[in-house]
Amino acid sequence: LRFDEKVRVVVFKSEVKGVFCAGADLKERAKMDDAEVGHFVKRLRNLMDEIAALPVPTIAAIDGYALGGGLELALACDLRVAASSAKMGLIETTRGLLPGAGGTQRLPRCVGIGLAKELIFTGRQIDGQEAFSMGLVNHAVPQNDQGDAAYQRALALAKEILPQAPFAVKMGKLAINRGIEVDIASGMAIEGMCYAQNIPTRDRQEGMAAFKEKRPPQFIGK
Length: 222
Fold this sequence. Notes:
Layout: E1 10-12, E2 19-21, H1 26-30, H2 34-52, E3 58-62, E4 65-67, H3 69-75, E5 79-83, E6 87-89, H4 103-111, H5 113-122, E7 126-127, H6 128-133, E8 139-141, H7 149-161, H8 166-179, H9 184-198, H10 202-213
Parallel strand pairs: 1-3, 2-4, 3-5, 4-6, 5-8
Antiparallel strand pairs: 6-7
Keywords: Lyase
Family: Belongs to the enoyl-CoA hydratase/isomerase family.
GO cellular component, one term: mitochondrion
């Protein structure tokens, strides 16, 4: 996906009704020795980092349970849409663990330190509406009979992104992701570098021409 220039947005959904991702198989984990567990969690953390580093926007469609590593997967995405009835939580402390695939870092960046600590310390599960109220998900929607309401809303959100200039969207994502980790002056410099890369693109010229000619732009990602 990283190298496929035709990909504009990536939507993560589950093929299992009622479950987005239930996290690690603890029965499998119980058979591992300490070294194997450490290696397993490191690979999982690397996977989440790879998802977070995808250059195009990513959307998690949470139509059911997103627990432990399942919520960490959703947190690695740029945007999250949940069914109101979905259940999510970093429940690791209820099993003698702590989040190990990015949850301790991405959750506080998403909802703030106080709420993140409360959710991680208690291992509490929350529904989609609660997640929306605290900013954990971008949208919460009533579940439908097919059990894919969040996926349908995620598709609609993706279709809002699709018409926009692909390279500009990628640079916007890069500027936000890099800038949020540094002081604002450094962030402004990062934005400037991203903007400079966008200036010579054909899509920028097309955007200006379309505005002048009062027509929809036809972006090509170049």
